Amino acid sequence: MTDPALQLEAAAVGFGARSLWSEVDISLQRGEFLAVLGPNGAGKSTFLKVLLGLQRLTAGTVEVMGRPVRRGSSQVGYIPQHHQLELETPLRARDLVALGLEGHKYGLPWVSRRARRRIDELIEQVGAQDYAQRPVGVLSGGEQQRLRAAQALAGDPGLLLCDEPLHSLDLNHQRAITELIRQQAVDRGAAVVFVTHEINPVIEHVDRVLYFARGAHRVGTVQEVMRSEVLTELYQSPVEVIEHRGRLVVMGEHSEGTHHA
Amino acid sequence: MLERLAASFSTENYWELFQLVQNSVLTAAVLGLMGGIIGVFINLRRAGLVVHGIAEISFAGAALFLLMGLDVVLGSTLGAVAAAALIGVLSIRDREVSAVTAVLMPFGMGLGILFLYLYQGRTANKFGLLTGQIVGVDDMQTRTLISVAVLISVILILIWRPLMFSSVDPQLAAARGVHVNLLTIAFMVLLGGAVAMSVQVVGALLVLALLVVPSAAALKVARRPVVVVLLSCGFALFSAVAGIMIAIMGTVPISPYITTISFLIYVVCLLVGRRQRARFAAVTADSMN
């Protein structure tokens, strides 16, 4: 049996005396899709930073593909939150993808024939052929996000981290990007960690949920975690989860009530 | 006024005159190339005004060294690099640098004016620091300016990819193992050097004409990285060299020529860029119908 794509054991992060989260145990197999949910400030982004090697654990261990986490590892692909690129960015779509492949390298900025072939492949994988030669600044949010997916897939990662990649995209693009991530990552045997405010756009792909709130967390399938009594206990205040045509609505008295999940 | 300007021109003995300033032309050409390269990043990182701030501190450094009888190029370099590094460190801490720059700018300018007031030497030197003095650079300075400009250009090309990556998408670059903060400081130090060298050509007040305007113009008409850099270098080189070549025919200093030429190039690029975009929009609309 191969090493799990991601393994955390008794993992904890705290800042000074304050503990953000602790005792996180999770083992993610290749091909699994994990949604990370929770209100702002509960530690979702810190969780991603830990997996990227940008934040140290205060206790426990974290391994990616059987090795301790290392910053800049090609085993880990990362799709950051969408932010519109400047109109005058001096890059074409394929140049942006090239940065995902070789942007960390110093030396003459020469793109080898092999790299060029790989860039063509990546562009095809995310379906960006039509605008590969266009300046990135004029592309729509959805198109830019596809290119970020191509950047993330450049190293053929075993673990794909997505930080609210659907943020500020319209519904059509949300669906397209989600489908792309599932297809490219899960079908190729990479695990996906998908941080999101909204579980519904990805709900049909989610194998497990990691829910952070008030310094605590729950891990399990959607059915196990997204229940009124579980979230009520997690938030320590009444929360109701209502299912409607396969979509989940979470309502609570706390301020963030219906925003997430 | 126009008559005075026209009367000041003379094409007599042009090539003899040109030979006297060929050092300056060469220096201006190399500085233009450097400005074209670094300008792409200045525009991308929206650091145009920061450049102006650095230039004024650079002016203060130069004025101080002039007053003390030391090397002016060294003084302006020290001032510029110190200011640039300080702004770089502050930008890493909280990313809002325009206020800091605005605070440093008048302070540097004031110090510079004080030092010039105290200086008893030739007034041509004084004015030169603010508006450019390249026609007067000697062999020694030419060598320094050219070596530093070449060095800065080479370093920029070698760190091109990581610097571009962290300018476009710092978050992703950091995740991919790029030392984003280190690159910010490195870039600012290079920028300080570039400003200090350019101050010698166009003066502290007009540095933007060489470092920012050419690449801003190039970015209006091109998006392909190689094309942007080539155009930007070409524009900077052309404005600097043409500026000097016109200036030696008359008595007007070179800076107004350089700034006017680079401004005209910008205007043309702005118009061309608009037309390109309009045509592009029409094509896209067609393909969608």
UniProtKB/TrEMBL annotation, chain B:
Transmembrane segments: 20-42, 49-67, 73-92, 99-120, 140-160, 172-195, 201-219, 226-248, 254-273
Source organism: Nesterenkonia sphaerica
Subcellular location: Cell membrane; Membrane
SUPFAM superfamilies: ABC transporter involved in vitamin B12 uptake, BtuC
Record's bilayer topology term: Multi-pass membrane protein
InterPro entries for the chain: ABC_BtuC-like (IPR037294), ABC_TroCD (IPR001626)
Protein name per Swiss-Prot or TrEMBL: Metal ABC transporter permease
GO cellular component: a single term: ATP-binding cassette (ABC) transporter complex
This protein's UniProt keywords: Membrane, Transmembrane, Transmembrane helix, Transport
Domain of life, per lineage: Bacteria
Pfam families in the record: ABC-3
Gene Ontology biological process: response to zinc ion; transmembrane transport
Listed PANTHER family: ABC-TRANSPORTER METAL-BINDING PROTEIN (PTHR30477), METAL TRANSPORT SYSTEM MEMBRANE PROTEIN TM_0125-RELATED (PTHR30477:SF0)
Protein family membership: Belongs to the ABC-3 integral membrane protein family.
